[in-house]
Design goal:
mainly alpha, about 75% helix
Length: about 230
């Protein structure tokens, strides 16, 4: 009768070590896959999260100073436009608003894998700066007509949502023809719907940024179509 083979403790340790190495290798592979094509989004997201959490940890008075100092309100835009246009893109307040980082990473990652790093930065800047300046113009117009109070000149406006809305607009080209209509309808409900519900200049900024993204999508769609035709 054959005797059962009993695995030694050393062999068991070797097998366990190999399993651990395979598991660690799988984790590293997954991290590399997630990082590849999303490095701009991930780095930006980490900066936004860290800065926003550090700001939120400050005493209330200091937090207000940080937010107001980074805001793209009319007062700051008149005094130091470039500084606040840059700083406002790295602050989310209140800190619960950091949920927006998740869809931002998804959208920026899709955009980077499609068009490259530079395109993510260009689209983000166009959406953030373009929508901010348009909103500021509308606020000045409404102030001149006496439809809003002067308090609006110092109302805080920070965050990453304008750039995200622009990215969502550009990505319409990446959606398949079958789902594109539904994607556009969902975007309309989100951006235009919240504008009519909230009725704020920030909501107007989201609609503007999304339209900027759609405008960028037109030449991008033409360029990608031409490139495919050349390759064929």
């Amino acid at each position: 009768m054959a005797r059962p083979v009993v695995q030694s403790t050393d062999d068991q340790d070797i097998d366990q070590g190999q399993c651990d190495m395979n598991r660690a290798s799988w984790v590293r592979h997954q991290l590399r896959e997630q990082w590849r094509g999303r490095d701009v989004a991930v780095v930006y997201a980490v900066l936004v999260i860290v800065i926003s959490i550090i700001a939120a940890a400050q005493p209330p008075a200091q937090l207000r100073d940080i937010v107001s100092g980074s805001s793209t309100d009319l007062v700051n835009l008149r005094q130091r436009p470039l500084a606040v246009l840059f700083a406002s893109a790295f602050v989310v307040s209140p800190v619960l608003g950091l949920w927006i980082v998740a869809p931002m990473v998804v959208a920026y990652g899709a955009l980077q894998r499609w068009l490259g790093r530079a395109s993510v930065i260009v689209v983000g800047v166009l959406g953030h700066v373009g929508a901010t300046l348009f909103v500021a113009t509308m606020e000045i117009t409404e102030l001149a007509k006496g439809r809003v109070g002067f308090s609006i000149a110092g109302r805080p406006d920070v965050g990453v949502s304008y750039a995200l809305a622009a990215a969502a607009g550009v990505l319409v080209v990446q959606v398949g023809p079958r789902w594109r209509r539904w994607y556009v309808m969902a975007s309309l409900i989100v951006f235009i719907g919240q504008f009519f519900i909230v009725q704020s200049f920030t909501g107007l900024g989201h609609v503007t940024a999304w339209l900027i993204g759609l405008a960028v999508a037109v030449p991008v769609s033409h360029a990608t179509r031409t490139q495919r035709q050349v390759e064929l």
